[in-house]
C-alpha cells in the first residue's frame, strides 16, 4: 500500500479518508471492477501462480475499504474463507463494541501488508482508544485463481486466534495488583511476557473482587478453561493484591534477553525453594511457550540420563574411564556425535562436558540385561527430578513427557530426542534439582495459595548429587557451556542441548544452568547449538541474581 492512505469508520457512519501521496479517496470507496477477487482475468490465472504486486495492493486496499465502510459481506468475499471472515468482521463491532477506527496501511512487503489500527471502544457511556498493529497476506485462491486475503482472525487483531472472540463488557472479576517477592508491582506494560501470567492469576485469585468488576475489552478464547486476554481497561474494578514469587530484577533481565530473538523462552527458578523468579517469551504476551510448550530438549536431558547411569551402577565417579566412539548402532539405527568427534582415553566428565552422544548409548547397553532398558529413564526422571508428575505451579503449565519407549527411540530419548518433551520450566528445574540436591516443585505463587498437592521426589543420593554437580561445573568451565557461562560468577554449572526438529533447517537451541541460588532454562527456536543463543539468554538471567 502507498504511504499516507487511511481507512476509517466513525460512529457507525462509515467513511474513507485518504491523505498524503496515497490512492485517491473515491478510488478506494469504489474499488476496482474486479475487487472481489481480481475479475475474469484473475479467475483464469493458474492457481499456482504467485500474486503480483499490483494484485496485493488492490486486494488489500479493497478489503480494508470494505471493512472500513462496515460492509462485512463485501470484505468477506475478498478472503479465501468468506463464512468465517464475515462472522468475525460482524463480531468485531457487535461484541467488541468498536465505535470508530482508523486503519493506516503501510508499504507492502511481498504479499504481506502491515497496518495500524486506532479504534475507539464505547460501552454504556464509557470510551477509550485501543491502538495496535496487524497485517494481512494476499494469496491466490486455490479454486478461483483470484487474489484473496488469506483469512485469519489475526487480520482484525494480532492476538485473535481461531475460535476466539473480541468482547467488551463488565468482567467477572475485579482488577489485581500483582507484586513480586519484595512487593514491587508487576504489570504487562512493564513486563510484556507476564500478560498471560497476570490474566491467569486474575482468573484464579481475584474472585473476591467480583462485587466491583472492571469494564474491559478482552479476547475470549474458545477454550472455556483458558483465561481471557485483557486488551483494554475502560473502568477499573476493585483491586485485589496477589503475591507472586517473581523477582522484578530477574524478570526485567529475562525480558531483555529473549527480546533479542524472534522465538525464545526462559524461566528462572530458585533451587533452594522452587520459587519461580522469572518467565519470559519472545514474542511477548502470546502463548506462554516457556511454561506450556512441549518440545524435545536435546542434550539437556543428559543430566537425567547421567543420573540414571549412576543409579544403575553403569558408571563410577567423574574420573571413571569411559568410551566415546564416533558412532554407535542401536537396534539397527546409527547415532553420531556432532561432527563425528570421538574422545580417546576419556572420562565420564570428558564425555559429559563435551556432550558425547555415543558414550551415553554405549554405556547404557547393559540396561537391556537388567530388563529396564525402555523404562529406566522415565523412572529416574520421576523418582529424582519430579518429571512426569503433575506440577501445580499456580498457573497453567505443561508437564514434561518422558514415556516408555522401544528400540531406537529409547536411545534417542537418552539424548533428549525421540518422544521426550520439555519446556524452559522443565529444564530450569533440572539445574535447580542438581544444585539443591533435591527436587523442589516450581511455584509462581506462595505454596499455600495452590490448591491440590505439589509433586515431590526423592532427594538425590549424596554421591549422585556431587557427581552431577562436578559434571555440570566441568561443562560450564571447560566444556560446551563454557563460552556462555564465562561471564557468570559464583558456584556454577550448566548443560547445553540442541534438538533437531522435522521441517527446520536449524536445531532448537537449549540450555540449562545455575549460579549460586538461581537456576534458569531456555530454548531458542532454530537457534542452533545450545552454546549459542540459549546459553546467552540463561547467562544474562543468572547475572541478574
- Uncertain residue segments: 1-5, 8-40
Helix-residue proportion: 25-40%
Task: Give the integer mean of the pLDDT values.
Answer: 88
Number of extended strands:
20
Query: How would you describe the oligomerization state of the chains in this entry?
Result: single chain
Q: For the record, give the distance between the C-alpha atoms at the N and C termini, rounded to a whole number.
A: 47 Å
The strand order across the widest sheet is: 2-1-3-4-5-6
Sheet with the most strands, sense and barrel status: 6 strands, antiparallel
Q: How much strand?
A: 15-25%
List the total number of helices.
18
Q: Estimate the global geometry from the Cα principal axes.
A: globular
Structural Rg: 27 Å
| Secondary structure category | alpha+beta
Annotation keywords:
18 helices, 6-stranded antiparallel sheet, 5-stranded antiparallel sheet, single chain, alpha+beta, 545 residues
Please characterize this protein's 3D structure:
With about 550 residues, the chain is an alpha+beta fold. The strands form six sheets. It has a six-stranded antiparallel β-sheet. A five-stranded antiparallel β-sheet has the order 13-12-20-19-18. α7 runs antiparallel to α18 and α9 packs across α13. The chain is globular and about 75 Å long. It has 18 helices and 20 strands.
How are the SSEs placed, and which strands pair?
Layout: E1 5-10, E2 13-18, H1 25-30, H2 39-43, H3 53-68, H4 72-76, H5 82-94, E3 98-109, E4 112-123, E5 126-140, E6 147-149, E7 165-170, E8 176-179, H6 195-205, E9 215-220, E10 229-235, E11 240-243, H7 248-258, E12 264-269, E13 276-282, H8 289-292, H9 302-311, E14 321-324, E15 327-330, E16 333-336, E17 343-347, H10 348-353, H11 357-363, H12 367-370, H13 376-385, H14 408-414, H15 424-436, H16 462-478, H17 482-485, E18 492-499, E19 508-515, E20 518-524, H18 533-542
Parallel strand pairs: 8-11
Antiparallel strand pairs: 1-2, 1-3, 3-4, 4-5, 5-6, 7-9, 9-10, 12-13, 12-20, 14-17, 15-16, 18-19, 19-20
Amino acid at each position: 500500500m502507498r504511504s499516507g492512505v487511511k481507512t476509517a469508520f466513525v460512529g457507525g457512519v462509515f467513511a474513507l479518508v485518504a491523505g498524503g501521496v496515497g490512492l485517491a479517496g473515491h478510488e478506494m470507496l469504489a474499488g476496482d471492477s474486479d475487487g472481489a477477487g481480481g475479475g475474469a482475468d484473475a479467475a483464469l490465472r493458474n492457481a499456482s501462480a504467485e500474486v503480483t504486486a499490483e494484485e496485493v495492493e488492490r486486494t488489500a486496499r479493497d478489503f480494508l475499504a470494505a471493512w472500513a465502510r462496515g460492509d462485512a459481506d463485501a470484505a468477506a468475499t475478498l478472503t479465501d474463507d468468506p463464512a468465517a471472515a464475515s462472522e468475525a468482521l460482524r463480531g468485531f463491532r457487535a461484541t467488541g463494541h468498536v465505535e470508530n477506527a482508523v486503519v493506516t496501511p503501510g508499504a507492502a512487503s511481498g504479499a504481506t501488508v502491515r497496518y495500524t489500527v486506532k479504534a475507539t471502544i464505547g460501552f454504556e457511556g464509557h470510551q477509550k482508544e485501543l491502538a495496535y498493529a496487524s497485517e494481512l497476506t494476499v494469496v491466490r485462491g486455490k479454486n478461483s485463481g483470484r487474489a484473496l486475503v488469506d483469512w485469519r482472525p489475526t487480520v482484525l487483531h494480532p492476538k485473535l486466534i481461531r475460535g476466539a472472540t473480541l468482547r467488551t463488557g463488565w468482567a467477572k472479576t475485579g482488577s489485581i495488583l500483582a507484586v513480586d517477592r519484595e512487593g514491587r508491582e508487576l504489570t504487562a506494560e512493564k513486563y510484556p511476557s507476564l500478560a498471560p501470567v497476570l490474566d491467569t492469576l486474575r482468573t484464579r485469585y481475584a474472585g473476591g473482587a467480583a462485587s466491583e468488576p472492571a469494564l474491559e475489552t478482552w479476547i475470549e478464547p474458545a477454550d472455556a478453561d483458558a483465561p481471557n486476554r485483557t486488551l483494554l481497561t475502560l473502568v477499573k474494578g476493585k483491586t485485589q493484591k496477589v503475591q507472586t514469587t517473581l523477582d522484578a530484577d530477574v524478570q526485567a533481565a529475562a525480558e531483555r534477553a529473549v527480546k533479542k530473538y524472534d522465538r525464545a523462552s526462559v524461566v528462572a527458578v530458585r533451587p533452594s525453594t522452587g520459587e519461580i523468579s522469572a518467565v519470559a517469551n519472545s514474542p511477548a504476551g502470546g502463548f506462554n511457550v516457556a511454561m506450556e510448550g512441549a518440545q524435545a530438549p536435546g542434550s539437556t536431558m543428559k543430566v537425567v540420563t547421567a543420573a540414571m547411569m549412576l543409579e544403575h551402577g553403569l558408571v563410577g565417579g567423574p574420573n571413571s574411564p569411559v568410551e566415546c566412539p564416533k558412532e554407535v548402532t542401536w537396534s539397527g539405527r546409527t547415532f553420531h556425535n556432532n561432527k563425528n568427534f570421538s574422545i580417546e582415553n576419556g572420562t565420564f566428565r570428558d564425555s559429559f562436558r563435551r556432550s558425547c552422544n555415543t558414550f551415553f548409548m554405549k554405556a547404557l547397553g547393559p540396561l537391556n540385561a537388567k530388563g529396564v532398558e525402555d523404562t529406566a529413564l522415565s523412572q529416574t526422571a520421576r523418582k529424582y527430578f519430579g518429571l512426569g508428575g503433575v506440577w501445580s505451579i499456580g498457573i497453567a503449565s505443561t508437564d514434561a513427557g518422558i514415556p516408555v519407549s522401544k528400540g531406537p527411540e529409547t536411545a534417542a530419548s537418552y539424548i533428549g530426542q525421540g518422544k521426550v518433551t520439555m519446556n524452559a520450566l522443565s529444564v530450569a528445574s533440572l539445574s535447580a534439582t542438581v544444585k539443591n540436591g533435591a527436587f523442589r516443585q516450581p511455584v509462581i505463587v506462595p505454596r499455600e495459595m495452590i490448591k491440590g498437592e505439589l509433586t515431590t521426589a526423592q532427594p538425590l543420593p549424596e554421591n549422585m548429587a556431587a557427581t552431577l554437580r562436578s559434571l555440570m561445573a566441568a561443562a560450564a568451565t571447560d566444556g560446551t557451556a563454557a563460552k556462555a557461562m564465562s561471564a557468570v560468577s559464583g558456584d556454577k554449572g550448566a548443560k547445553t542441548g540442541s534438538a533437531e526438529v522435522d521441517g527446520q533447517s536449524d536445531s532448537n537451541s537449549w540450555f540449562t544452568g545455575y549460579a549460586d541460588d538461581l537456576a534458569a532454562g531456555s530454548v531458542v527456536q532454530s537457534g542452533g547449538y545450545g552454546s549459542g543463543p540459549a546459553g546467552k539468554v540463561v547467562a544474562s538471567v543468572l547475572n541478574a541474581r
